Amino acid sequence: MPPDEMRITDLGTLKAFAHPLRLTLYRALHVARTATASQLAGQVGEAVSLVSYHLRKLAEHGLIEEAAPQSGDGRERWWRPAAEGLTVRYEDLKGAPELVAAQGALTRILLEQRAALYRRHLDESATWSDDWRSAGFDAEYLPRLTAPELADLQRELDALIRKYQALGRSAEAAGDTRGRENVAIHLYGFPFRTREDRQP
After folding, report:
1. Predicted TM-score of the model (pTM)
2. Is residue 129 within a helix (H) or strand (E), and if so which, with residue range?
3. Torsion of CA 140, 167, 62, 76, to 10 degrees
4. What are the boundaries of each domain within the chain?
5. What positions does the domain HTH arsR-type occupy (predicted)?
């Protein structure tokens, strides 16, 4: 089983990951848990050769790895994420401006892709049951916090979400897949200033 978390701390890996198609492939592979290039190509609408190339690039940087074959076809190469989750933390990068810039580029692409995923959900919301439409949420909170309090909040939210991920994995391992769907949870916690605050 892959480790829980991989921290990206080097420029080469950041740049390799900050590619729209590679991010899309990584997300699709994370959802599937294991897949071949041809399976992923069908999901993302790209040629198998192009998908294979980008999967190899992700593997070169240790972001994904080969998985045990899931079928009898020995020609198929199966892949899986190298870790349950990836993190890029400012404290690992702050001494190097080029790393901070690469993190910014990665974060902007992720933001665009997450917004597109949510827009797609909104466009397709009528196809979901009343239970799913009621369970989904979109919320904004505007507390006044210190930096340490915001960091504590992030750790608590991470622990809570990981608890539910573990529940889902345990249930699926036991064969209980009834009613389970892929769920995207996007959280952002960042400071901002009002116009009044910004004035000298």
Report:
1. 0.88
2. none
3. -120
4. 1-127, 129-195
5. 12-95
Contact 189, 154 (CB under 8 A): yes
For residue 116, give both structure tokens.
């597109």
Q: Is 80 helix (H, G, I), strand (E, B) or coil?
A: strand
The answer to whether residues 93 and 13 touch, using CB atoms and an 8 Å cutoff, is no
Q: With bands split at pLDDT 50, 70 and 90, how would you rate the model's confidence at 198?
A: confident
In the predicted model, what is the mean pLDDT of residues 73-88? 89
Structure-token match 């993302």, residue found? 44
Contacts of 19 by beta carbon, 8 Å cutoff, 6+ apart: 54, 57, 109
Structure tokens at 117: 């995923």
Residue matched to tokens 């390799």: 16
Backbone angles phi, psi at 7, to 5 degrees: -100, 125
Does residue 33 have a pLDDT over 70?
A: yes
Query: ∠ CA(155), CA(158), CA(161), 5° rounding?
Result: 150
Angle 46-52-58 from CA coordinates, rounded to 5°: 110
Instruction: Find the helix packing angle between 37-44 and 48-60, rounded to 10°.
Output: 110
Residue 34 backbone zone (phi > 0: left; psi -120 to 50: alpha; other: beta): beta
CATH class belonging to 1-127: mainly alpha
